[in-house]
Amino acid sequence: MYGFLIGVGVLLLLSIIWMVYRIQTLVSVVKGSDKKIATGSNKINAILFVVFLLGTGFLMFWYSIKEFDNYQLPVASEHGVITDQLFWITMAVTGIVFLITHVLLFIFPYKYQYKEDRKASFYPDNNKLEIIWTVVPGVVLAGLVISGWMAWSDITAPAPEKAHVVEIMGYQFAWDVRYPGKDNVLGDYDYRLITASNSHGVDFTDKNSLDDFPSPKVVIPKGEPVLFKIRARDVLHSVFAPHMRLKMDAVPGMPTRFWFVPTKTTEEMRAELNDPEFEYEIACTEICGRGHFSMKKVIEVVEPEAYQKWLAEQKSFIQQNPALAEGLTPEMKELAEIQLSESKK
Description:
By secondary structure, the chain is of the alpha+beta class. The protein has helices spanning 2-31, 34-66, 68-71, 78-111, 127-156, 266-273, 304-313, 317-320, 330-343; strands at 164-171, 174-179, 213-215, 218-221, 226-232, 237-241, 246-250, 256-260, 280-284, 296-302. Belongs to the cytochrome c oxidase subunit 2 family.
């Protein structure tokens, strides 16, 4: 209640100050002294417009050049090259328009500041100009939108048949990773099956689930298509891999996907950046709660041969925890036992 009263009091005080200012202005008009005051203040404001233009313009260019390497990360995927091209084309078009309009915006108050002997021109309309500044931006924006739509359609189109599948599941506050086995087909899942030992909710009554396996990090091969199948277990998350130029929301109840082709291994990127501790990563770019900051998952890009070797060394969920096979039909248990015996050979 006291906070409300204080707020009302502040509003009343501001209203009184504003009314006093208005009364003083009206008194100046009546006395005929307003023109002199307006002339002086306009000149000062006109100069300040130019100072602000030069000052902020210098800071913008200085900061953009100084921090360029921090916001323009090296590209590590095929589609990332196209994404960057579209970004810089858009920046060039909008940047040129921005500079022209804002230079004019700040120069005009200086050039056309108030003068007693100057009379404003009456220029009600110009149909030709109206058509030009409506059609030209429309055509340019249509070109940018269509180019972006084409790139986006390629990225979200069905992945190549031999793409390596990886499931990324977000939850508060981490990412879980699931791979299919040799069949490269992920098994079904059901949120009602989620337990402490089955965080993915994998449905092991589906034979395609028997060889699925988890991984503490995302391992993918260089130069081969990779399909991320993305989902969320609780709230909205967003998969973001900046070097891959990859971003896709993880939505509860609505699986999404994103496929790409990595072009640089982790070791190659470390050599390029001269940083032996560099790691690709997945971050969450959707504010999902208090632990949002901790949602990081390492991506390791390796050569195809190293990837196949790593793949052969992985153990399925059931191999790591045979208790997950309890409750399966005899036929499914037999398949699980065959798989377990083959892994021991």
